[in-house]
Amino acid sequence: MIKKFAAELIGTAVLVFFGCGAAVLAGFDVVGQLGIALAFGFAIIAMAYGIGPVSGCHVNPAVSLGAFIAGRMSAKDMVVYWVAQFIGAVIGAMILGAIAKTGFAHLGQNGFDAGSPGGYGLHAALIFEIVATAIFVIAILGVTGAKGHGAFAGVSIGITLAVIHIVGIQVTGVSVNPARSFGPAILAGGQALSQLWVFIVAPLVGAVLGGLLFRLKLLEPEA
């Protein structure tokens, strides 16, 4: 479990540093929305093959919750993963803040209304984060299942995350990951911190929905 804890901590730190780093250090003017989306997707692909053999590369409390709901991990393991993921996200955001010219003020935090890149409101943020997280969890549980395509799982998951970002960056900056939102918000404070609850609650709701589809065998392949 120590190895799994370390893997999830490192993997989540890398995701936050690379994904949010693309937004903060490069930005829309340099790499654009597509570049930022690909940074998140490629970070997941890299970590899937780097730490996947150790922990499964959840690097996301919503993914761990989805796996628990689906009956693929214990509650004890899920809590250990959560602790590692939240700590890792803060570390990733701290590294980014130490490099960024703006310090900890802008760390790629998520938001709605004034915090939304496209000016989208709370209802749009909730709908997007719930639906997108459910889709993400479904993709992960499907490709990592007994009849999934294990060798290509990392690529599939990374592409799914990239597509979610392409669609949703203008809505919320895209969370689908409570830890990814937590790290930047805790350090940036202010509006990001006051809106953080949305990016914890909505992804977890989406994860439950996605996990239930497998728990109820609605998306499990025939034996």
From TrEMBL:
Q: Where in the cell is it found?
A: Cell membrane
Identify the keywords attached in UniProt to this record, alphabetized. Cell membrane, Membrane, Transmembrane, Transmembrane helix, Transport
TM stretches of this protein: 7-28, 34-59, 79-100, 120-143, 150-176, 196-214
Q: Does the keyword Cell membrane apply?
A: yes
Q: Which InterPro entries match?
A: Aquaporin-like, Aquaporin_transptr, MIP, MIP_CS
Highest taxon in the source lineage: Bacteria
Bilayer topology term:
Multi-pass membrane protein
The cross-references to PANTHER family, in alphabetical order and at most eight, read: AQUAPORIN TRANSPORTER, MIP17260P
Which family does the record claim for this protein?
Belongs to the MIP/aquaporin (TC 1.A.8) family.
Q: What is the protein name given in its UniProt record?
A: Aquaporin
Q: What is the lineage of its organism?
A: Bacteria, Pseudomonadati, Pseudomonadota, Alphaproteobacteria, Caulobacterales
